[in-house]
From TrEMBL:
Entry function: Required for the assembly of the mitochondrial membrane respiratory chain NADH dehydrogenase (Complex I). Involved in mid-late stages of complex I assembly.
Gene3D superfamilies: D-Amino Acid Oxidase, subunit A, domain 2, FAD/NAD(P)-binding domain
InterPro entries in alphabetical order: FAD-dep_OxRdtase (IPR006076), FAD/NAD-bd_sf (IPR036188)
Taxonomic source organism: Volvox africanus
Gene Ontology CC, one term: cytoplasm
Name listed for the protein in its UniProt record: FAD-dependent oxidoreductase domain-containing protein 1
PANTHER family membership: FAD-DEPENDENT OXIDOREDUCTASE DOMAIN-CONTAINING PROTEIN 1, SARCOSINE DEHYDROGENASE-RELATED
Pro residues bias spans: 1-10
Keywords: Oxidoreductase
Limits of the FAD dependent oxidoreductase domain: 55-464
Signal peptide start-end: none
UniProt key word Ligase: no
A molecular-function term among this protein's GO annotations: oxidoreductase activity
Amino acid sequence: MLSRNVPPPIRARRYSSSPAKRSLPSLISRRVKPVVPRRFAAARSASEDDVLTADVVIVGAGIVGLFTAMELLRNQLSVLLLERKGLCAGATGAGQGYLWMAHRSPGTVGWALAARSVALWRRIVQQDDDLRATIEWQACGSLLVSNGEGESASLSERQYALNSVGLKASYLDPRRLAELEPGLVPPRGGAGLLVQSDLQINGRAAAHALLQRCRANPGFGDLMGPEGEVVGLELAAGPGGSHVIRTAGRRIHARHALVLSAGVWTGDLLSAATGTPAWSHLLQPRRGHLLEMPRPEGMPPVTHGIMEVSYTKHYTAASTPPPPPSAAATAASSSAEPADITFTATTSANGNLLIGSSRESNVWDTDPSPAIIAAILQRAATFLPGLRSCADSAAAAAAAAAATGGNSYSDAVAGLVVRVGLRPYAAGGLPLVGPVVGSPGLFVAAGHEGSGLCMGPGTGELLVRYIRTHMGASGQDTRSFDDLLPDARLRASLV
Ligand SMILES: Cc1cc2nc3c(=O)[nH]c(=O)nc-3n(C[C@H](O)[C@H](O)[C@H](O)COP(=O)(O)OP(=O)(O)OC[C@H]3O[C@@H](n4cnc5c(N)ncnc54)[C@H](O)[C@@H]3O)c2cc1C
């Protein structure tokens, strides 16, 4: 049973880009025959109406599942992608879109995966101009900003660390920072660190574009909505057998590999598949809110991706217990721990501001919280004074909602859109990428917390190396990423 964190079934909904309605039999017959005969086929049996078979079955159409699908197709393997809701139903739909190195720690495995991924992102958009435009690729650079002198010293240390591995980072004193971003006034004369090579994309647009490219490949099929919800997994008894994936009304066979890339819900799927409950505890949500709103009149534009430097604690903590909430953690929260609020801001391609962000441990509810919205804007206004009146009206809206016991935020700020997503946090702060020991043909790619959009391409590449090794290919070097192996992550979390 996959019950604990699986929301109740939703109304039938399919991915809505063209073709609007896709019947499965026609999808299969249209896609399989011309290019890859017999690799991905619908087989009929007396007992089951629809039995589907693919080389690899992927559960979860977030950014990680999509990049894995792309890489498998590139390696001539057929793919069936299963998604119980629709694109961007998980964390991918809420991501701010930073493809950044500035806030990571050189020399760590997280750095290596991010660096490889950014290189792959660059290659992908170099080869595909349409994709570059569709995903709103912005070479806007990143700015880490400090909150007073103590933090400014940490910016200098970071500048040194980044420069020493060849990533150009420039320290900006308050005067130079003000010249670069006139609307930014960090508290207590804080300084900045500029990494001009950092990038930004629109994560939702990227997910849609990747799915479209997968669908253009005859070796690909997908089931979106309730018919794509995995409700049971039967693992093969031994090497060489195929795994069986059960959805409502269908049995699906994964000929070579089953990939679980279901974000924070991966833990429960793994527990159900392997009978090991610890997997469920290994992956937990860190709920995040992201605000999209028009730039207030008179406020100077935000031209870089910006983040307060204390945000880096979420990345230096890899392989250590989760850090305590920061001094900035002020907001009311529905979880037992207070929410962690750390300032981020950028401008999307349509000119709107994207303001973040919050982290709440172990909160599964994805309804926007007026208190968190107000706390994010309050924090942002301490760096961007042009947001002060928006922050005050959001605080008033949150107080009104608290007084009535409601959760409306519609009066907070004109034109405000709120995205809420569950960052898949794996204990220790690193993702799980690789095979599951004792279950040949079962693979995991999950737990990217606040970095999945950035790390998607490298994750897909790495996972496919493991799958190819499992299928008998040689020379698939994965050693530098051993710390990400699911069993290594599980062991580390139990220490
Ligand atoms: C506010 C916020 C800001 C962020 N900003 C950034 C950023 O700037 N840069 C960055 O790199 N990352 C960022 N992230 C993190 C990033 O969004 C995530 O790391 C990433 O989206 C995770 O992708 P995923 O594919 O692993 O999971 P998800 O996107 O959660 O996808 C998992 C999918 O699996 C499906 N699923 C679950 N169970 C089943 C089942 N039983 N059957 C079928 N399907 C199932 C779900 O419906 C879901 O669609 C941010 C996240 C948040 C919340």
